[in-house]
Amino acid sequence: MLYKSTRGHHERITASVAIQRGIAPDGGLYMPEELPKIDLSFLEALLPCSYSERAFRILSLYLCDYEQEALQSICQQAYSTQRFGEYPAPVVKLRDSQVSVLELWHGPTSAFKDMALQIMPLLLTKV
Fold first, then answer.
1. Which domain does 56 fall in, by range?
2. pLDDT tens digits along 105-127
3. Is 29 part of any domain?
4. Sign of torsion over alpha carbons 113, 115, 116, 119
5. What span, in angstroms and rounded, lies between the C-alpha atoms of 87 and 126?
6. CA separation for the pair 65, 27 (Å, rounded)
7. What is the pLDDT of residues 19-74, one digit of tens each?
8. In a 3-state reduction of DSSP, which class is residue 37?
9. Quick one: pLDDT band at residue 83, thresholds 50, 70, 90?
10. Which residues lie closer than 8 Å to 24 by C-beta, 6 or more apart?
11. Global pTM?
């Protein structure tokens, strides 16, 4: 899978290069040239998986230039129970309500950013 700038720059790069660069030369963000097809059976197969396994299965669709074993290890390290506890992003139903919320603050700094930022340095070291 190749990535391109949201601002139309013509260069196409791999996921690992896009992660290293962060921003495209024209100031745009990198996005996949084509989105992978995700069907209902793929989503259903994620239900029994741990958070790290879900992350691996989804990211493996987008980060094709990473070795599968390395990517799986990265996901296990980034979303380990030591960093996030048993449930990294629990869905909690509000009391006496039909509303549920996704709690994204169970990481090491108690901020939603932990979900993305725990994996980033690991991805950068495996390029």
1. 36-125
2. 888 888 888 888 889 999 999 76
3. no
4. positive
5. 26
6. 23
7. 999 999 999 999 999 999 999 999 999 999 999 999 999 999 999 999 999 999 99
8. coil
9. confident
10. 4, 5, 6, 7, 9, 11, 30
11. 0.86
**Contact predicate 94/101, CB 8 Å:** yes
* CA–CA dist 124, 42 (Å, integer): 27
Number of domains in the chain: 1
Tell me which DSSP letter residue 13 carries.
B
Contacts of 41 (CB under 8 A, 6+ apart): none
On whether residue 21 sits in a domain, the answer given is no
Please identify every residue annotated as catalytic: 113
* Nearest residue to 50 (alpha-carbon basis) of 102, 85, 5: 85
Strands (E), 8-123: 30-32, 91-93, 100-102
Tokens, residue 46: 């994620």
Q: Which two tokens stand for residue 118?
A: 């725990």
Burial class of 19 by CB neighbour count within 10 A (0 to 12, 13 to 18, 19+): buried
Candidates 68, 43, 65, 47; CA nearest to 56 is 68
Report the b/e string of 84-95 with b at 16+ CB within 10 A. Answer: beeebbeeeeee
Please report the pLDDT score of residue 87 as a whole number.
81
